[in-house]
Specification:
The chain is of the alpha/beta class. The chain folds into two domains: 4-78, Winged helix-like DNA-binding domain superfamily/Winged helix DNA-binding domain (Arc Repressor Mutant, subunit A); 104-212, Rhodanese-like domain (Oxidized Rhodanese, domain 1, 3-Layer(aba) Sandwich), CATH 3.40.250.10. Helix content is 49%, strand content 15%. The protein is built from ten helices and eight strands. The chain has helices spanning 4-18, 21-30, 37-44, 48-60, 81-96, 98-107, 122-131, 142-147, 184-195, 207-212, and strands spanning 35-36, 64-69, 72-77, 119-120, 134-138, 154-155, 173-177, 200-203. Helix 1 runs antiparallel to helix 4, helix 3 crosses helix 4 (48-60) and helix 5 (81-96) crosses helix 6 (98-107).
């Protein structure tokens, strides 16, 4: 006979699967698009063997699924609620753990050294897009961009940004975004463009959060 404890023990499998920073990095990357073990290992700075072991934990907890494509196994999120779960985990940690606040401030220490490089919220971004006053810059990789992106975004991977400045409009504010709140690519892009005289901010979330909110994507 099923007991209440059995239910909580099963529920705890999800918590155990999330109890690894490497697995959270893997989930952040999978939230962009389906990916192979090799691509995920590279994104999480893991060996293929270690990445595969972590992915098995995520599969057993029902957080990711895998399908075979030729000789590769491609991983994807089971559903978009996992992005919401990760967002709630982040919000709880940032609200209640002093160490989290310290680490975030150190990660993006150069963002606001003079208070000028602020982030733009989802509501502000929606208003700017509606008014036609902002241009979106997606600094993720080309394959992530092709799998899905914010409407009318321009894709310029960070490494190519300085050589492709002519792609950016000069009559609108640039809003850079990438994989999520802790993705440094958009921060580095915003810093670079600001030094070059562009009016620029970064989106304080990323593509997965935008998609999970049910907002339009291309």
């Amino acid at each position: 006979m099923t007991s209440r404890q059995d239910l909580f023990d099963t529920l705890a499998q999800v918590g155990k699967a999330l109890g690894s920073g490497h697995r959270l990095v893997l989930l952040e990357r999978i939230a962009q698009s389906e990916a192979s073990v090799e691509a995920l290992a590279s994104a999480a700075d893991l060996t293929v063997g270690n990445a595969s072991a972590h992915l098995q934990h995520l599969r057993r907890a029902g957080l990711v699924t895998a399908t075979r494509s030729g000789k590769q196994m491609l991983y994807r999120l089971t559903d978009q609620r996992i992005v919401t779960l990760m967002s709630l985990l982040r919000e709880v940690a940032e609200t209640n753990l002093a160490e989290m606040e310290r680490l975030v401030s150190r990660l993006f220490a150069n963002d606001n050294f003079d208070g000028a490089l602020e982030a733009i919220s989802r509501d502000e971004l929606l208003a700017g897009l509606k008014a036609g006053s902002v241009a979106l810059l997606d600094v993720r990789s080309e394959d992530e961009f092709e799998a899905g992106h914010l409407p009318e975004a321009i894709n310029i991977p960070l490494a190519q940004l300085e050589s492709m400045l002519e792609e950016l409009p000069k009559d609108r504010e640039i809003v850079a975004y990438c994989r999520g709140p802790y993705c440094v690519l958009s921060h580095e892009a915003a810093q670079l463009l600001r030094k070059l005289g562009y009016q620029v901010r970064r989106f304080d979330e990323g593509f997965p959060e935008w998609k999970a909110a049910g907002l339009p994507i291309h």
